[in-house]
Amino acid sequence: MNIFSILASVVSIYTLLCFVRVMLSWFPGAEYSRFGQVLCQMCDPYLNVFRRFRFLCFSSFDFTPAIALCVLMAAQAFFTSLATGAGFRLSTILAMLVMLVGNIFTSLLGFLAVIVLVRLIVYLIAGDGQGSYTIWTAVDRAISPIIFRITGLIFRNQSISFVKALVVSFIMLVVFSVLISYAIRVLGTLISMIPF
């Protein structure tokens, strides 16, 4: 076992710990347990580096943990490739970075598409739920600026219904995700073919 295998294993374990730390934040009080506090001390210094990037927060959605985990996974893949003797080429690193950025971006688009689809289904089944404050009211406040900005690309200066905005946004998010994923894959392949 060489040093790169050890580094890949350490990064893999740390990625798992950071993932558990992020999951604990979804459960009230879990962060304050003894286990949660130990994880916070281990993982928060790394996760806080990404929280400085405010552009990774859309409305009330914070994508910084996803980006932080993707960077760790890229580091693990890098160390694994070195451990298997794949070598150290600048083109491989550039291709990996392009693919990482593309995967992060398409993951964010996919996540938003799922939220928009779930909200559309709930809206069609249960109505708008505006009679009292519900979880869906909070979701609507979070996604409305995003979906109306997306639909504004097609329906400039036109007033459209919330349901139409959800449908159009979902379709556009899926199309953008597929197109960007394909373009990034092609670009990554072309970059990896550079002989240096």
Keyword list:
196 residues; two-stranded antiparallel ribbon; mainly alpha
Written overview of the protein:
The protein is about 75% helix and about 0% strand. It has 6 helices and 2 strands. The protein has a two-stranded antiparallel sheet with strand order 1-2. A hairpin with a 2-residue loop joins β1 (about 55-60) and β2. α4 (about 90-125) packs antiparallel against α6 (about 160-190) and α5 (about 135-150) crosses α6. The chain is flat and about 60 Å long.
From the alpha-carbon coordinates, what is the Rg to the nearest angstrom? 20 Å
Largest sheet, spatial ordering of strands = 1-2
Number of helices: 6
Overall shape: it is: flat
Average pLDDT over all residues = 82
Low confidence ranges: none
Helix content percent band: over 70%
Structural class: mainly alpha
Distance between the termini: 27 Å
Strand content: under 5%
The main β sheet shows up as: 2 strands, antiparallel
What is the tally of beta strands? Answer: 2
The SSE order reads HHEEHHHH
SSE map:
Elements: H1 3-24, H2 34-51, E1 57-58, E2 61-62, H3 64-83, H4 90-126, H5 135-151, H6 162-192
Antiparallel strand pairs: 1-2
Helix pairs in contact: 1-2, 1-3, 2-3, 3-4, 4-5, 4-6, 5-6
Quick synopsis:
This protein has 6 helices and 2 strands, in the order ααββαααα.
